[in-house]
Write a structure and sequence with these properties.
Blueprint: H1 2-13, H2 16-29, E1 37-38, H3 54-74, H4 76-99, E2 102-103, H5 116-127, H6 137-150, H7 158-177, H8 183-201, H9 205-208
Parallel strand pairs: 1-2
Helix pairs in contact: 2-4, 3-4, 3-6, 3-7, 4-6, 4-8, 6-7, 6-8
Length: 213
């Protein structure tokens, strides 16, 4: 009976995603905002658009869903902790979106090159609005994956940790090279990630567990 109760609790955590999706969708598509806060800093002007970053940007879906799936089936305690991190950080992000609606105007009016990648990105721009950008959910959820990996025994080797960190950083950087986000959106996300990490995991993983080579 206790086992069934535990399994139910893990499945229940997944209910956060449709609830979050509905709320985020409402804020993106249906809320009428008269005055958005423009997310922009001078550093954005020095970052060129580069369509090749669509690969790490889209890999975010594999990175996030893959880690959640692995932990759900193979390490349920770490799955619970990762979901707790996501619930804290993403819920806080929704509150920010409600109180401080943001917009970015960095997308190129005309792409510097015409190829399959830029055409795909053009269609993606139509699907994904340029509102509710600070903090970046790509950054927050990537940091959630990195924190889960650094606190998971299965990924305690130096190679695994380096792989998760490099991929996570590439995903974060891709958001500004695709002009999906301002640099500000990354920096706004970091304190939220730090707070969620400390609430869920306590001490940084590297200080709690010896890195295995």
């Amino acid at each position: 009976m206790d086992r069934i109760k535990k399994i139910t609790q893990y499945w229940t955590l997944l209910l956060f995603w449709p609830l979050f999706g509905m709320m985020f969708g409402y804020l993106e598509r249906y809320r009428n905002v008269q005055n958005y806060i423009v997310s922009y800093c001078r550093m954005d002007d020095f970052i060129p658009f580069n369509e090749w970053f669509i690969f790490p940007y889209m890999f975010w879906f594999v990175y996030l869903i893959g880690m959640l799936a692995y932990l759900f089936f193979c390490d349920k305690e770490n799955f619970r902790r990762m979901m707790k991190y996501i619930i804290i950080a993403n819920s806080f992000t929704l509150i920010i979106f409600i109180l401080f609606p943001t917009v970015q105007n960095l997308r190129p009016a005309v792409f510097p090159r015409d190829n399959l990648l830029t055409r795909f990105i053009g269609q993606f721009y139509l699907f994904d609005t340029n509102t509710n950008v600070a903090p970046s959910l790509h950054v927050i959820d990537s940091m959630a994956v990195m924190s889960a990996a650094l606190n998971c025994k299965r990924f305690s080797s130096l190679k695994w940790r380096a792989a998760f960190i490099i991929v996570g950083l590439l995903i974060c950087v891709s958001t500004v090279f695709l002009k999906q986000h301002s640099v500000i959106d990354i920096f706004v996300a970091l304190p939220i990630c730090f707070l969620a990490d400390r609430l869920v995991y306590g001490e940084p993983a590297v200080s709690k567990r010896r890195v295995e080579v």
